[in-house]
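tokens incoming
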């Protein structure tokens, strides 16, 4: 375990516009200071309502970002609630720009580092009845023997490259390799799938809601993703789904299945986007039981192994010395890691693998995989998906 207060302090130092908000005591989250997001069709109305505080308007794919004057000291959470209508029925789609985090780590949850392991065998690809594409919104994708020769990787290799040591401290960034690890988990279950990566969080595991919305808007315009894996997320300031992010998910359409991790704060507090109705939320198992760090609750749809998962990783040799013949920070393409981050792609891969093998569309495959009549369920954890 790492010192979470120290980790939060480092995060706030690295992201100078981030701030902790806690409208309800004991239920904190992080937002970008002086920023609100608005779904495109509501941007004009929202801008008019905040014109006395608004410094700039930035129209982005999937959302508009309104930048407020720092001197106005506007509470972006209170303002978002007021603009949305303040009641159960929202009139405008407005949200603070929440920070999102990959889920082996979260600033108020458990921390886990990857550990090097010996090479793993390449998954064997049996015949597929149709082509399936899995989009991975994460830290990017590093070259790896499992996919170096694949056409889908050559098409995107440079634009999605993992950043391994952004702060130049000679150590692997806390979540560098996260996307590469998730890609391997997907391919274990869907070896014929083509992957499409988009970088939405940095090697420190941190991004924001707008980064995710942009990526979802790009995927909606691209229109070729059967399954989308999102192994990151956040709690929101009001524990309700961000309407901006919800619209971006909805824009993917009904032929795309979105799978997201349930989060690592060992609570039943909804974690977004996993807790959205349109998203498959995945918790982590440790053997036959819930992993101690995994979130749980009525909103969780499935659970899969999430402790000491083995998968693909990056090549990197850090400064720590060898001990008893083992180098703790020398990675040669493979690692083990723990978190709901790595349970989610097992479910995404299982859905993609079934769709490819039996020629199903992704929603039909998801219905089969998640059908409680076909498997075992656990209270507050959903359907068990074995490794």
């Amino acid at each position: 375990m790492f010192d979470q207060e120290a980790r939060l302090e480092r995060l706030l130092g690295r992201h100078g516009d981030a701030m902790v908000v806690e409208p309800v005591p004991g239920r904190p989250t992080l937002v970008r200071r002086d920023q609100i997001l608005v779904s495109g069709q509501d941007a004009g109305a929202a801008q008019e309502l905040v014109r006395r505080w608004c410094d700039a308007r930035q129209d982005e794919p999937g959302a508009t970002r309104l930048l407020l004057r720092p001197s106005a000291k506007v509470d972006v959470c209170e303002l978002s609630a007021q603009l949305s209508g303040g009641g159960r029925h929202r009139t405008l789609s407005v949200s603070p720009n929440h920070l999102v985090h990959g889920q082996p780590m979260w600033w108020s949850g458990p921390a886990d580092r990857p550990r090097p392991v010996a090479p793993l065998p390449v998954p064997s690809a049996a015949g597929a009845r149709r082509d399936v594409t899995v989009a991975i919104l994460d830290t990017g994708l590093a070259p790896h023997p499992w996919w170096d020769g694949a056409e889908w990787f050559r098409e995107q290799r440079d634009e999605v490259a993992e950043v391994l040591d952004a702060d130049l401290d000679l150590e692997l960034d806390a979540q560098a390799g996260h996307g590469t690890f998730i890609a391997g988990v997907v391919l274990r279950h869907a070896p014929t799938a083509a992957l499409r990566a988009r970088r939405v969080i940095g090697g420190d595991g941190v991004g924001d809601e707008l980064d995710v919305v942009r990526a979802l808007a790009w995927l909606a315009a691209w229109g070729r993703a059967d399954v989308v894996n999102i192994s990151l997320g956040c709690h929101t300031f009001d524990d309700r789904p961000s309407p901006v992010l919800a619209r971006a998910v909805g824009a993917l359409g009904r032929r795309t299945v979105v799978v997201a991790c349930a989060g690592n704060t060992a609570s039943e507090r909804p974690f977004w986007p996993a807790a959205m109705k349109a998203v498959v939320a995945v918790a982590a198992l440790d053997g036959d039981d819930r992993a101690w760090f995994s979130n749980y609750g009525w909103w969780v749809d499935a659970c899969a192994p999430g402790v000491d998962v083995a998968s693909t990783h990056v090549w990197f040799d850090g400064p720590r010395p060898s001990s008893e013949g083992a180098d703790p920070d020398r990675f040669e393409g493979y690692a083990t890691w723990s978190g709901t981050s790595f349970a989610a792609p097992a479910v995404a891969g299982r859905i993609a693998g079934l769709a490819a093998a039996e020629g199903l569309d992704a929603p039909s495959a998801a219905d089969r995989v998640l059908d409680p009549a076909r498997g075992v369920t656990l209270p507050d954890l959903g359907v068990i998906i074995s490794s």
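note: The domain at 18-99 is CATH 3.30.70 (Alpha-Beta Plaits).
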